From TrEMBL:
GO molecular function: ATP binding; UDP-N-acetylmuramoylalanine-D-glutamate ligase activity
InterPro entries, alphabetized: Mur-like_cat_sf (IPR036565), Mur_ligase_C (IPR004101), Mur_ligase_C_dom_sf (IPR036615), Mur_ligase_cen (IPR013221), MurD (IPR005762)
Name of the molecule in the record: UDP-N-acetylmuramoylalanine--D-glutamate ligase
Record gene name: murD
The protein's enzyme class: ligase
Organism: Soehngenia longivitae
Pathway connected to this protein: Cell wall biogenesis; peptidoglycan biosynthesis
Domain Mur ligase C-terminal: 312-426
Keyword Nucleotide-binding: yes
Catalytic activity: UDP-N-acetyl-alpha-D-muramoyl-L-alanine + D-glutamate + ATP = UDP-N-acetyl-alpha-D-muramoyl-L-alanyl-D-glutamate + ADP + phosphate + H(+)
Length: 451
């Protein structure tokens, strides 16, 4: 196997790196670790996880060139010094997903990727499959580490895995039985370097699929519609805008499944509790996999008539003085935040800003003009977003130094029937460890002002 008794370098001591290190302990005695953190912090994180028998290297170490394989984490972009050095030495680099796949004990893997909607779709598919009697678990950014579960399971277990472009970038043999690409829009260009590289990473989800596998694509997404699949997996489209000859689409207020031989109405969209047009896209993509797996109509309708979404995605927090507060901290790019704006009725007071991923915020400003009465910006991108707003004649912009000040400004500006929406259109890493921490902080501040 690919790491047995090999010299293995693990990049990162976050959740991904620690899960990989715990797995490697039974496979090899030659484990090396690198992280950008100061040495004492690396030691502390390793010791807290009960990991001691590893060698910590720095980026200049000659030992790096002696590695047989490197397992990287999402925090290490392709231009990172250690990655560049490894590539120049022709050392294989893989992600935790690829490692888990090689040592898997079940091949019932259903992968979901896309710029937006991954988490919601992953949880939704998992809930529907559970309702239908599948032994199934959601992995990726949800639940236990992928390497831990895929290597400690039964052959008949099923796994729905949320897959980022960072993880897919370093896959070679990974092959899900069903793959869903929800959409592709500009994101993470600071990591991938170009839109072409970002797209190429996303498309690796089906690179190894065969004729008996399923690939689901969004027909309404221009990039995905133009993809040449080369007839490898079975291809199924979904659409919320166009009737299709085959696939999942909406007709007369109902979600319809159509093949060459049948047309079936799955559910009336009025019964669906998940708000927003973007969630109809997520639902249609998920239902394509459900139909492929033979899931019953009753199970689908039961879940869709009760499922209200996931935390940090247009999550209702509280109401005070007839003002509603929504947490959309998972809105980490422009398209995601536009979808959140579209999902609410308004008037909206938008809180945005965070880590700069080299995004263009023009479309965000255009989207908020008709619905937003004010924009509050914070974080690394606050000046960039403010300047974009001014240049597009949206002038009601306020700058906040932190989340508490942003919520205070929003509350003071609000009137009855307004909606305060945190949807940053940016990652969280300038002020928080992750979007969950950011969203939880927002919710705590909002709940504090309710008292």
């Amino acid at each position: 196997m690919i790491v047995d008794n090999k010299n293995v370098l693990v990049l990162g001591v976050g959740m991904t790196g620690i899960s990989v290190l715990n797995f490697l302990k039974s496979k090899t005695n030659n484990i090396y670790v690198y992280d950008d953190l100061p040495y004492p912090d690396i030691v502390r994180k390793l010791n807290n996880a009960g990991i001691y028998d590893v060698v910590i290297v720095d980026s200049k170490s000659k030992l790096i060139s002696n590695m047989d394989i490197i397992i990287t984490s999402p925090g290490f972009p392709p231009y990172h010094e250690v990655i560049v050095k490894a590539k120049s030495s022709l050392i294989p680099i893989i992600s935790d997903i690829e490692l888990a796949y090689h040592y898997r004990k079940s091949s019932n893997i259903y992968g979901i990727t896309g710029t937006n909607g991954k988490t919601t779709s992953t949880v939704l598919l998992t809930e529907i499959l559970k309702k239908d009697g599948f032994k199934v678990e959601a992995l990726g950014n949800i639940g236990m580490p992928t390497i831990e579960r895929l290597t400690n399971c039964s052959f008949d277990d099923n796994f729905v895995i949320e897959l980022s472009s960072f993880q897919l970038e370093y896959t070679n043999d990974f092959r899900p039985k069903a793959a869903l690409i929800l959409n592709i829009t500009e994101d993470h260009l600071n990591w991938h370097g170009s839109m072409d590289s970002y797209i190429a990473a996303k498309l690796k989800i089906f690179a190894n699929q065969k004729e008996d596998d399923l690939l689901v694509l969004n027909y309404d997404d221009e990039i995905l519609r133009k993809i040449n699949v080369n007839n490898k997996p079975k291809l199924m489209y979904f659409s919320v805008k166009n009737p299709l000859n085959e696939g999942i689409f909406i007709k007369d207020g109902k979600i319809v499944f159509k093949t060459e031989n049948l047309q079936e109405e799955i559910i009336n969209i009025e019964k669906i509790k998940l708000p927003g047009k973007h969630n109809l896209e997520n639902i249609c993509g998920v239902l394509a996999i459900c139909k492929h797996l033979g899931v019953s109509k009753d199970s689908i309708e039961s879940v869709l008539s009760s499922f209200r979404g996931v935390a940090h995605r247009i999550e209702f927090v509280a109401t005070k003085n007839d003002v509603e507060y929504y947490n959309d901290s998972k809105g980490t790019n422009v398209d995601s935040s536009i979808k959140a704006i579209e999902a609410l009725k308004g008037p909206i007071i938008l809180i945005a800003g965070g880590y700069d991923k080299n995004a263009d915020y023009t479309r965000l400003i255009e989207a908020l003009k008709d619905k937003c009465k004010a924009l509050i910006v914070l974080g690394q991108t606050k000046e960039k977003i403010k300047d974009t707003a001014y240049s597009n004649n949206f002038l009601n912009v306020y700058i906040a130094n932190d989340m508490r000040e942003a919520v205070d400004i929003a509350t003071n500006l609000s009137s009855p029937n307004d909606q305060v929406l945190l949807s940053p259109a940016c990652a969280s890493w300038d002020m928080y460890n992750n979007y969950e921490e950011r969203g939880d902080h927002f919710k705590k501040i909002v709940n504090d002002i309710m008292e």
